[in-house]
Amino acid sequence: MNSKQEVHINGQKSNEILQRSRIGVFDSGVGGLTVLRELYRHLPNESILYFGDTARLPYGTRSQSEILQFVREILIWMVDQGVKMAIMACNTSSALALEAVRSEFDLPILGVILPGARAAVGLGKRIGVIATPATAASNAYRRAILEVDATVSVWQVGCPEFVPLIEQNRIYDPYTLEVAREYLAPLLQYRIDTLVYGCTHYPHLAPILRTILPRSVNLCDPAVHVVSAAAQELDLLGLRNVRPPLATRFAVSGCPEQFAKLSVQWLGCTPEVEKVYLPAMLHRQLP
Known about the structure:
Enzyme class: isomerase
Catalytic activity: L-glutamate = D-glutamate
InterPro entries: Asp/Glu/hydantoin_racemase (IPR015942), Asp/Glu_race (IPR001920), Asp/Glu_racemase_AS_1 (IPR018187), Asp/Glu_racemase_AS_2 (IPR033134), Glu_race (IPR004391)
Low-confidence stretches: 1-11
Number of strands: 10
Function: Provides the (R)-glutamate required for cell wall biosynthesis.
Strand order of the largest sheet: 4-3-1-2-9-10
Organism: Funiculus sociatus GB2-A5
Number of helices: 14
């Protein structure tokens, strides 16, 4: 066998290994399950590694330097696990860390904001965004939407209580409805025609939000659109898996049992969840 043939065969083997490698998906908690659900629907052959940084949620009240450090730690760990792509299933991370880490890691890294912005512009001209305080303060959605279409109007509201309420499984608590009415009030005054879920946790609140919003308001879930972007990227790089997938691997930095109990209502089964210690987190826990 000549060297060219050997390189070709080795390259083919290497590409097959990459195709069968997992896509890494991460969020501060269960919010990213909305992205995972779309991956199951639209990329059913892909194997997934899901990480929830539950020991440090919520991300939405953190500083940019903290978020950037957290994201770096997660990506270092995910690269060690052999992922072929990473999806930031977290708007706060996408807003505050995506551009920085893309230049630091040698793998495709996708965020949810640009796909969500493109989709929102296709739905309406008066766009409201509900987001974590950090995402709202970053103006990432406003900038992304206006870059796509400068003629639309955009209003953003920071919603600090939503993520803790969802993570505490209080979606149908009367207090959650009260908080949602308060957050949506200014957007309704602006007569929005489209509402963007500016946090991957927020689609879990759809039954509550729908009772408050007029039927004419379109709901835009960036989770759907980041998965479409992931599919395009996989095809472009020749990394789409065509074989049956491996079972999804779930990992958290906090309590595995709590995550498993909370996520069962959206996964339809109780996942097996492992606890992992990210290198920098482990270092901070040492005496």
